[in-house]
Amino acid sequence: MTTADARTPASKRNARNVPEARNAPENEAGKSIGWHKGYVQGSRPDLQVPVRQVHLTNGKDVTLYDTSGPYTDPATETDVRRGLAPLRENWIIARGDTEEYEGRPARPEDDGLKHTSPRGGLRNLDAVFPGRPRRPRRSRDGRPVTQLAYARRGEITPEMEYVAIRENVAPEVVREEIAAGRAVLPANVNHPEIEPMIIGKRFLVKVNANIGNSAVTSSIEEEVDKMTWATRWGADTVMDLSTGRNIHTTREWVLRNSPVPIGTVPLYQALEKVDGRAEELTWEVYKDTVIEQAEQGVDYMTVHAGVRLPYVPLTARRKTGIVSRGGSIMAAWCLAHHKESFLYEHFEELCEILASYDVTYSLGDGLRPGSIADANDEAQFAELRTLGELNSVAKRFGVQTMIEGPGHVPMHKIKENIDLQQEICEEAPFYTLGPLTTDVAPAYDHITSGIGAAMIAWWGTAMLCYVTPKEHLGLPNRDDVKTGVITYKIAAHAADLAKGHPGAQDWDDALSDARFEFRWEDQFNLALDPDTAREFHDETLPAEPAKTAHFCSMCGPKFCSMKISHDIRREHGEDQAAIEAGMREKSAEFAASGNRVYLPLAD
Amino acid sequence: MTTADARTPASKRNARNVPEARNAPENEAGKSIGWHKGYVQGSRPDLQVPVRQVHLTNGKDVTLYDTSGPYTDPATETDVRRGLAPLRENWIIARGDTEEYEGRPARPEDDGLKHTSPRGGLRNLDAVFPGRPRRPRRSRDGRPVTQLAYARRGEITPEMEYVAIRENVAPEVVREEIAAGRAVLPANVNHPEIEPMIIGKRFLVKVNANIGNSAVTSSIEEEVDKMTWATRWGADTVMDLSTGRNIHTTREWVLRNSPVPIGTVPLYQALEKVDGRAEELTWEVYKDTVIEQAEQGVDYMTVHAGVRLPYVPLTARRKTGIVSRGGSIMAAWCLAHHKESFLYEHFEELCEILASYDVTYSLGDGLRPGSIADANDEAQFAELRTLGELNSVAKRFGVQTMIEGPGHVPMHKIKENIDLQQEICEEAPFYTLGPLTTDVAPAYDHITSGIGAAMIAWWGTAMLCYVTPKEHLGLPNRDDVKTGVITYKIAAHAADLAKGHPGAQDWDDALSDARFEFRWEDQFNLALDPDTAREFHDETLPAEPAKTAHFCSMCGPKFCSMKISHDIRREHGEDQAAIEAGMREKSAEFAASGNRVYLPLAD
């Protein structure tokens, strides 16, 4: 275990992503108190798994899962214009089953610009990252180059070993889960910068954060910043849902700087290419867009192939119709042409393309309910059955696949969703939005959905798509992204605890020990959000001494409940057996004296 | 149904509690759009039940439960120094089973002042509210004057009719639930200002907000303001947990101005009277404090009579010992004297006192778990069994009783709590703190606990005690109180939906209709927090026209999913049957042409 020195000059850090440096004293173990980037060494020199190490004042260490990438490593300098180091490049090349090729030339319309546009925003796309010539890579002979294919062949790839270390399980478990289709490891051969992660119910529950500009607002820099900010707080993957101008360029920036897998909805960009006229969409435009994005390195793509012509009328009786953007686009197309969805019709061809880059399917739930009234209805479950059918097809082509779900679902209807999905989709990973458990709290839908997210994750959902306070109202800003991610990390961890995930409770135990022993600094440093925890504490008790005080502002110095617990132990010794013996003796006396005494059973 | 005119000059309003007046246009029904205080007339002139009426732009009305009291009625002037009108006074007098008496004289130590204190803060307590001479009222002949006693006699009191209208159920249902001990209607004869409410699993899930100054910070005005602020956002009851100076006076102000039942923990004040030395507590000091508070009008009291001597050692092996303040005080007392709890020993005498004022018991869970590690342990359940025993005793004396529960409990251990409580306590209302489903997120414990609160309420908890973002870190300020209340109203409503509470979904449906039809103003006015919903929307799209725009900032004007849903309906008519017929025809063609067609089952 190597640990980066947190006392590196702040100047060397990416200020946007590293928590403020604190001149913390050293603990008995001679380690500076606080949290630091660390790495677990794998079986090869270039396989180092990042962790968040918390050095406690009592000399102990707590090691936590870390998604923040090189940005939180003071020993690494990052440059948003150079992008991150291609960590996986040698692993991909060493497999020898891919080749570089010329690839699809970038076109003005990729960025939503007319061919005739005076400002040819893409005249020199390749210059966006001069450091990395954009010669894309794909399968050498058309056979799948996916982690699923390798797992089925019994190979444990460096990516699999990487996630095994991250999840603290045996590499063979990772291979088995991927081979069985119960887990996915999204890792496009054209996105070598990622730190591999896995999505499956046997592993830690993951969280996705959506970013993306829209026709209405936001900029490229903002989106890249939101991505690094989201991973800083724990986002395991990020989806770029941009719909406005500069889609291609924004995505290139995000991909080259992202330590986590990036997902997209190619349909959004395809629609821009036909000026937002759904009926003008064609398989050719869509296919071209998928290849464009696969060559850039998109790790998973939402494909709404389950929105079929016969299901559209099922939404007519709904309270809120179709609320998925992709779903409504495909529904509009189907009705305009009175034809079956071109995504459904060309699904096998799409599988061949995705398999040659190892792009993972996220089969979209275009008919998810947009209100409590529409939950678990005919339209939703009809689509789910089709997703099950498509899941089998994708597997036949060796494409990794996960299934998207929920939306607005009241608590008593949540379990039916996960149970049905697991049955119909042969336990493929479920990736759910929320669900939102009520419609009445716009501005608080991170909470209405955090409730449903925790429950469905406990019951088996593998990845949760976050919801921010701006849901239904506007585009999330930086604070909204943080609030959404933190809320969903809470839901995910609560689910890990409920599932009895090995070691999940160690984190809670460490923080509770710190709390009971009034180790305030340790409590802050172990918190999901150390900055806010410290800030809230200091609001009431700003003085430094308060950080070591044996009380908090709730009860005050005069009378603190936990202080009493300590006094009890002090007065009556640590020998619990003795205490209990003495107490049971007392109890006996009460019994003798006719008191109603209750001796607790040992259940 | 009478409706207060919302266009009353703002000057006549209590600015602190009434949302900003807006010059909204009138809808077709000629009603000004927005939300307004309304009243439902009961069977007698002085029985008018407040409701929150939302007039929609489409001419419809939505009626919501209202806890905000006269403060949100522009037709009523409130004066914090005069207190609220004694709404129930005539009902109480008319029953003829109570009498006024001299009552206990207020003493300096009631406010934490020494007898010899130079600043005799209480020299003239009666002058705090010159408008109301403080001659307390109690049972004329010692027999219980409780709603439980009346219900058992088959009487439907005005209070019962009041809550029946509020909950939209038959008065007889209210009487039955109270008579059976499955519900409580906290209403001290000395707190005539309250608008009666009921707590029971057959009714809407309720939310309690804690306020209270401490030795460390906060003032009287702040606490009164927090109370009115909490009820403004939906708090159904408020607990005054003050522990610092001026406890008696603070409580007097809060009671005289509170439209909701007020709860306390008498032990806190009793402890102040013996200078915080737990071992110096006596039954006499405690009893004196209970009478002092009962005469003031406290509606329910938390009594930690379940913390018994033999259970204390069971906490020695815990990770976080005893975290309930009342629990730790009693544990310290038991150990100091090596005697059984004086609360347990004198429980029957206490019942007689509470019965003569109709103070409701909230049997405290002094041994609740303070960490995930301690959840559902021997100490917690041993105390619960004793609470079941005490519940039976209280019922024998005609005292209304609810049971306090949870704390920190992981999701998979929550149901065991409510199931065991319902069994052991003969379905007495469960009143739970959270539970917090993980320990790792200080500063976000409104969310870690909101998750557990929604679940346990779905499974039967009748009232939820809120948790604010400051939990474990400091004292909540105004914003924290609002955030805590809103979060818990979400949990409570999500549970009402999951329980299938009659009419609960009407609110969600009305808001979702407004959302789908782009009636932004209606969406804001129906929201749990209209102010924040409007503010978030305007952040991205400030212009007034945007309030009627048929899109939102998520997808932008060019392509909105819900807009498409409308287009689908427009293009294909409202005749759903026709649409479906046509579609099924198409489906048939696909089948004929050998396509895989899936005709959704009608499940």
Automatic annotation (TrEMBL), chains A, B:
Residue stretches making up the ThiC-associated domain: 36-99
Sites where the protein binds Zn(2+): H408, H472
The protein's Enzyme Commission number: 4.1.99.17
Domain of life assignment: Bacteria
Molecular function in Gene Ontology: phosphomethylpyrimidine synthase activity
Biased composition annotated in UniProt, kind: Basic and acidic residues: 99-114
Region Disordered: start-end pairs: 1-44, 99-145
Record's catalysed reaction(s): 5-amino-1-(5-phospho-beta-D-ribosyl)imidazole + S-adenosyl-L-methionine = 4-amino-2-methyl-5-(phosphooxymethyl)pyrimidine + CO + 5'-deoxyadenosine + formate + L-methionine + 3 H(+)
Keyword Manganese among UniProt keywords: no
Entry-linked InterPro entries: ThiC, ThiC-associated_dom, ThiC/Bza_core_dom, ThiC/BzaA/B
Keywords, comma-separated and alphabetical: 4Fe-4S, Iron, Iron-sulfur, Lyase, Metal-binding, S-adenosyl-L-methionine, Thiamine biosynthesis, Zinc
Pathway the protein contributes to: Cofactor biosynthesis; thiamine diphosphate biosynthesis
Binding site for [4Fe-4S] cluster: C552, C555, C560
Cofactor binding summary note: Binds 1 [4Fe-4S] cluster per subunit. The cluster is coordinated with 3 cysteines and an exchangeable S-adenosyl-L-methionine.
Keyword Lyase: yes
One Pfam family of this chain: ThiC_Rad_SAM
Binding positions for substrate per the UniProt entry: N210, M239, Y268, H304, S324, R325, G326, D365, G366, L367, R368, E404, Y431
Function text: Catalyzes the synthesis of the hydroxymethylpyrimidine phosphate (HMP-P) moiety of thiamine from aminoimidazole ribotide (AIR) in a radical S-adenosyl-L-methionine (SAM)-dependent reaction.
HAMAP family listed in its UniProt record: ThiC (MF_00089)
Family listed: Belongs to the ThiC family.
Protein name per UniProt: Phosphomethylpyrimidine synthase
Gene: thiC
